[in-house]
Write a structure and sequence with these properties.
Radius of gyration: 24 Å
Number of strands: 3
Distance between the termini: 27 Å
Shape: elongated
Length: 212
């Protein structure tokens, strides 16, 4: 009976196809915007890297000419090298992180296009893994009824987005968010309502352990 209730819970998580298409459009726009942002940032970082390399060369020349205390020069060179390493780590990093976030959300949207059908086709072990990936908690009430869940990212954000885009229906699950603030207004919901950048959610997304 509980297993049947879980099947019903998955049926309630279906994500509307038109809303999914809107989100995909927003994500494509974000990638295009990030390309330009990354280009500009890389230009700035490249300029700063060149400046640090000149500074490092000047310090080496000073050391060779005996113009400053050797130990002081070594410390300054070490500082410059750390700054250069930090810049190299940032070069081109933003777009790749965004792309990873887009891939994660796309996988979640694919899964939520027919979560009930997917769950029914799975073996017992596959169901266990899917439950671990999607749900943080399932609240089981008398008569083996489930109408409240805590979801893991990015499924929680997608459900908050769905709620913001259309009125709740009687059959919908109540998605709870224990111990943390709802982030949807500034992330996925913000994307769909054109009230903010989508970068925070996609850059910060963590893999939930499932890939369709």
């Amino acid at each position: 009976m509980i297993e049947d209730a879980i099947v019903g819970a998955y049926a309630s998580l279906r994500f509307p196809s038109d809303l999914a298409d809107t989100l995909r459009t927003r994500m494509a726009e974000a990638i295009k915007e990030e390309e330009e942002c990354t280009r500009l940032l890389n230009e700035q970082l490249g300029t700063e890297l060149a400046r640090l390399e000149r500074q490092e060369e000047n310090l080496i020349d000073l050391a060779a000419g005996g113009g400053l205390d050797i130990e002081k020069i070594k410390r300054r060179i070490a500082t410059v090298q750390r700054q250069k390493d930090a810049i190299r780590e940032r070069l081109g990093d933003g777009r790749r992180r965004l792309e990873i976030g887009v891939e994660l959300i796309e996988d979640a949207l694919t899964l939520l296009s027919d979560p009930e059908g997917l769950y029914r086709r799975m073996s017992h072990e596959q169901r266990r893994l899917l439950n671990q990936a999607v749900f943080d908690k399932l609240y089981v009430y008398p008569q083996e009824r489930i109408d409240k869940v805590a979801l893991r990212p990015p499924f929680d954000e997608l459900m908050y987005t769905r709620e913001a885009a259309r009125p709740l229906e009687a059959s919908d699950l109540i998605v709870v968010d224990p111990g943390k603030q709802r982030r949807s207004q500034a992330t996925l919901t913000g994307i769909l309502l054109d009230r903010g950048s989508n970068k925070p959610v996609m850059v910060g997304a963590e893999v939930s352990g499932i890939r369709t």
